[in-house]
Amino acid sequence: MSAHPASGQGLDRAAPTLQTAPAVSFFEAFKFWLRLGFISFGGPAGQIAIMHRELVEEKRWISEGRFLHALNYCMLLPGPEAQQLATYIGWLMHRTLGGVVAGVLFVLPSLFILIGLSWIYVAFGSVPWVAGLLYGIKPAVAAIVLHAVHRIGSKTLKKPSQSPVLWAVAAISFVAIVFLSVPFPWVVLAAALTGWFGQRVVPRQFAAGGGHASSKVQGAVHPVALIDDHTPTPPHARFKKSRLTVVLVVGGLLWLLPMGALIAWQGSVGAVTQMGWFFTKAALLTFGGAYAVLPYVYQGGVEQFGWLTGAQMMDGLALGETTPGPLIMVVAFVGFLGGWSKQVLGPDALFLGAALAATVVTWFTFLPSFIFILAGGPLVESTHGKLQFTAPLTAITAAVVGVVASLALFFIVHVADITWSGGLFGIKTDVVALVLMVLAALALMRYKVGVIPLIGACALAGMGVKWLG
Predict the structure, then answer these.
(1) Residue 156 belongs to what domain range?
(2) Is residue 13 part of a domain?
(3) Averaged confidence pLDDT in the chain
(4) Residue-level pLDDT at 14
(5) How far is CA 117 from the centre of its chain?
(6) Number of independent structural domains in the chain
(7) Strand, helix or coil for residue 333
(8) Is 5 inside any structural domain?
């Protein structure tokens, strides 16, 4: 057998009396990552919830503790944390190739779909059917986010009497985001410092829970996970200076060579060259998810470079929310419209030029994420089980519960179009959208309906409502 977790080595030593999880072949993992690329709706909270449900609770490829440990690291990084988490787990299971495949397949379906939708948008001038899709999908997204709050919160916070500090971190993070507009990086930093100092005073509150030899999911008892809490770190995931050097050199070349080719082709002021450089900077500033960086993208794409208009930017965000993949994939729409308007391949090849620009933008936006994971993953694995390192990450998870709860509130208010017009009965709301959201939440939490059937049903309901209206 090979020496990485996909082969199951180390499980017998870690827990000799427990049933081990079956080995996962690279092809089986490939099929899952490909499927995930087409069903990863709902923004980062929804995408993380999907991965948690499938990988932790159903397939048992990774334990709760290892999943959250990886997630916490991804939350510290700039870039789309859900895509980075997929890359991390793929790398942990099947080495560098597994990580690259997981990360690429998380993005690729969305890129193709957005290129197609962007072409429809610019070729026909409008996308009226998107309004109906969005009307139905947004309540489903809000329900998925609510479900994520429940899932992550119940696993991390436990009972208030057992972990009052973590509950306080979650509550303060919620207040800081919703009422004080504190930037997300500061929330993460404050949570990490709380965990660092807290583990010295009340270490029991930051210690991991019991072993994951089994966990109850939907009334069933599942065996030990393939990558469990006590599974030894595989050789390829152990830190080596030589490997770190190779990753950084290769990553640097993968940025430098395309950028050099663009400069040789268009010069430093060419539209596509400017896109590559601008979205490299955007990729390094996306702390806190896509919504945190959208103002920066708007300022550059609309005001500085004139790749598209403000109204088109809002339409692009709507299209981005109807497609799977990270919400930051809206940059592909920005690149497509920029390539189209600037005619980067000439007036006779508008589509090819726009598709090229969208692809270039996607490359430079996501390349740093792969470098962060492949370079930093071994360091993160070396901290597993060490309280002085895991306590800050546990506190960050608690903060994430508060942040995701604030996102859920944002969606509820905007999905239901809740407004205050004054007076005792001055609250106005979209009752139909609110009912759709409640039904979607019940379907997820009570009846365990799958994410894709839920989104499909809500999309059809939304189009029906708009058609009848």
Answers:
(1) 22-210+224-229+240-469
(2) no
(3) 80
(4) 41
(5) 22
(6) 1
(7) helix
(8) no
